[in-house]
Design brief:
mainly alpha; 5 helices; 114 residues
């Protein structure tokens, strides 16, 4: 028999909608996108003021949906995560960038009106 096949294939657009409408999942992706290095569950926990266990569960859910990839950190051997190179991760990253650009534009225009 061949390799293990996932039981369910998730549609990238549906997964992206779920993440973009869930504040913690969205912020987790936002943190991962903003970092160039591997991110640990403890990093997410500190940034979002949640427990490490809950942060780990969020990251595992994102991994199941193929948004992040879990890797062994070469420095300390612990499990760490980075954004995956998948269609759904690209959709989410693009939307995060658009939202950030809109926030910056509103901030800039607000300062011009003062």
């Amino acid at each position: 028999m061949g390799g293990r096949v996932p039981r369910h294939q998730y549609a990238p657009e549906e997964v992206a909608l779920c993440v973009l409408h869930n504040e913690l999942l969205y912020k987790t992706c936002e943190i991962l996108l903003s970092k160039d290095e591997l991110v640990h569950a403890s990093d997410i926990a500190k940034a979002l003021n949640i427990s490490v266990g809950y942060a780990y569960n969020l990251l595992r859910k994102l991994e199941k949906w193929r948004i992040v990839k879990g890797l062994k950190d070469p420095i300390n051997g612990k499990l760490a995560f980075r954004l995956a190179n998948t269609r759904v991760a690209q959709i989410i990253a693009e939307e995060i960038r658009k939202r950030k650009a809109n926030e910056m534009e509103k901030l800039f225009l607000g300062e011009l009106q003062l």
